Amino acid sequence: MKNPIRLGLLCLGLLCSMPSLWAADIPVKDGESIQDAVNKASPGDVVLIYPGTYKESVYIDKDNITLRGVVEEGKWPVLEGEGKRNDAILYSGNDFTVEWLTITHYKGNAIMGQSGNNFTIRYNKVIDTGVYGIFPQFGKNGLIEYNVLSGIEDAAIYVGMCDNVDVRHNEVFDNVAGIEIENTRHALVENNYAHDNTAGLLVFITPGLPIKTTFDVILRNNFVVNNNTPNFGAPGSIVSKVPQGIGIVVMAADDVIVEGNIVSGNKTAGIVITDLAFITDISSDPESEPNPDRLVFLDNLMFDNGADPVAEVKALMLTQFSRTGPDILATPGSAQEQDNCIINRERYTSFGVKKWSECERKNTSDVLSYRIPGGAPSEPVTATNRTKLLYQGICAGCHAYNMRMIGPPTLAVQALYRNDAQGIADYIAEPHKVRPDYPAMPSQGHLSPELRKDVAEYMLKVTK
Amino acid sequence: MRALLSGLLLLPVLSSLAAEWRLSEVCPAGFRPEQGRCYLQSLYGEYASLQDSGVGGLKTGLPPLREGFTPQQIDLGRLMFFDPLLSGDGTLACSSCHQPSKGFADGRGLSVGINGQLAHRSAPSLWNVGFLKRLFWDARASSLEEQMEGPLYSPIEMGNSREHLLKSLNESAAYPALFKQAFGDSAISLDRIYTAITAFESSLVSLNSRYDLYANGVHEVLNKDEIEGMNVFRSFVARCAECHTPPTFTNQQIAILGTPEPDGHAFDSGVQAVTGDASQRGGFKVPTLRNIEFSAPYMHSGRFETLREAVAFYTGGRGHAVPEGEKLNLHWHIWEPNLTDREIDVLVAFLKTLSDESFMPPLPSAVPSGLRPVVDVKPN
């Protein structure tokens, strides 16, 4: 062997460059705290949660953390809110995964995201909990699959202001809304079983939010059956205005494709397409475009819808001399316009689709997923990144390398301190005026001594 | 003889006054120079936000900032901001209602304008104002330039007129030279006045609070109560973050809350008065919560003296303060959170972690008009 030491070092170098090898499994047993494990975890780690009852809320503010339940002989880890805790799981980091948990009795949401790209939420049971079950917001590239949710007073699965999400193979029942796609783009909702909700699947624009569009949504191959539960949404909530007995609602959303769904037994209507005038008692938002544009209605199996419609729908249908609700209802206004299209319209009972054009597109078989190949951008914060981030974000606002800004040039600081990082670290905790022709420096004493030393060392090495 | 002597003594003073003013050549704290213009340097510079909305969670990018002004423009704006020459009678400056020591607000429910007249609403804080798409509580202005015409020319605020403003600046000894430094020639136009003041206002950036450190991975800077407060803040029970969304802690939308007016005051119809849209009755712009600790009292009329009272409003019950006979389209997130006393306390503790005045601008000890700069107004 030519040079075993060199070869050994090469292997070591390769090993060190593979972060997953250093990732840890952190077990949590009944009686222990999931949050403690999360606090200890580093990006790449998996928190393994064993069967038991966990009475806590868990917050994940770091990247690339997985919460994975361990199910043993039918026994699940259960997050129990006891009706007094706010949310079960709240994440803000990228690359978050949560799976194989049972969540029940929380007041707010079961699983909520506030930004965070590349999320995976699957194989969870969410029962009798909160306002929303699964609620990612402001996330890009997500997967919500194989979850079962019931007993929720607003939406079981609520995708809010996200891009590129697949929602598939979930069962949602006994909720007010089964699955909601709100102010979101590029969502694929397929193979879900939505039954016994007030309304099964909803795709819409909520006015008054900072991201204002919903477009490019596919509702495909879902079972949307018997959604006739009386509305038990909270007074004042938007969902409380949804009439019972509707399979699918499309409100103001654009470029929605409805294909291959089995929609039956919904007593008001199979699918309702409407504009923002549908929701009353809400402050208008002139920047929300209210019209549902370019709906594409392909082959769906619809039957037995409209057996006992709510009063408003009954009134509409009476104008067509019918006493039952339709498979397809387009409310007066832009929902009835010809930018929407349908194929084989003669199969369905309908209202308001006479002007709809004939679809050119016949199927969505070219779309396998709406997620982004390779994922959405997400760079985890490591220790070196963190120091650099602090330097760039705070120090560089006053110190440039070789010119005067509000503070002296970094070069001058380097010359003054030479290798004395500790000296800088001490100074910035309690800065005193050194140069009369510069303003006073704000104290960085709220940073720990270690952090100040890290940043000081970083500053001494800056070269541009 | 005495007159001649005093005249001689005055001469060097006068000439040095004219030579005294030199606008800053470096960008203010937090801004780096690029080809002679100043751009924000912040912890959030590398982050994206969904659909470039500038809202989201902890590590989310900022909305666009009014930036790219020269150091001289910013500095000229700073001097004018504190200069009572800009009011009709030379007694009030912008800083009379936007006082540095009071979070660039004025510590009053209703501000006091010229001749002691009361304004109609509470002066908002100017921290981070450069990120806002719309200005005023009722969102009626869509730029800082448009906004400043409000107080400048309002007969109950600064009581000035365009003609008088231009005249005073043009006739002042020092300003023409300063405009030359900032704009290349000494022409003083309304546009240039507004540009300079906008440049200064948008340099008031506060993004280095302890919350910001936490958000960027330095978790040790918040204590347990503050973290608990942050978790209540973003919970779906209190729902604060649904409208006061990070990183600016506003989603910049209009919201109808049904907050009470001060006793004896008529109902403020908010955005309805601007748009005529009855569905927006009682609607106001969601303000930022950064530096909120310094800008009491709270809401459009300053009805709440303390943070605790402002927070407690949201758990008082949906519509509990809406006057008899009023019907408002209350925001759907105003519901029954049933917050405990402890939750309210930790929420207040968290709100105080949003404080950061490290980029407080230098406060002038003199202004170009020779009048006394308005800095640290004593409370009435």
TrEMBL record, chain B:
Query: InterPro entries annotated for this entry?
Result: Cyt_c-like_dom, Cyt_c-like_dom_sf, Cytochrome_c_Peroxidase/MauG, Di-haem_cyt_c_peroxidsae
**Major subcellular location class:** periplasm
Q: Name one GO cellular component term.
A: periplasmic space
Q: Which domain of life is it from?
A: Bacteria
State the signal peptide span.
1-18
| Localization, UniProt | Periplasm
The residue ranges of the Cytochrome c domain are 224-355
Pathway, per record: One-carbon metabolism; methylamine degradation
Q: What does this protein do?
A: Involved in methylamine metabolism. Essential for the maturation of the beta subunit of MADH, presumably via a step in the biosynthesis of tryptophan tryptophylquinone (TTQ), the cofactor of MADH.
Protein name from the UniProt record: Methylamine utilization protein MauG
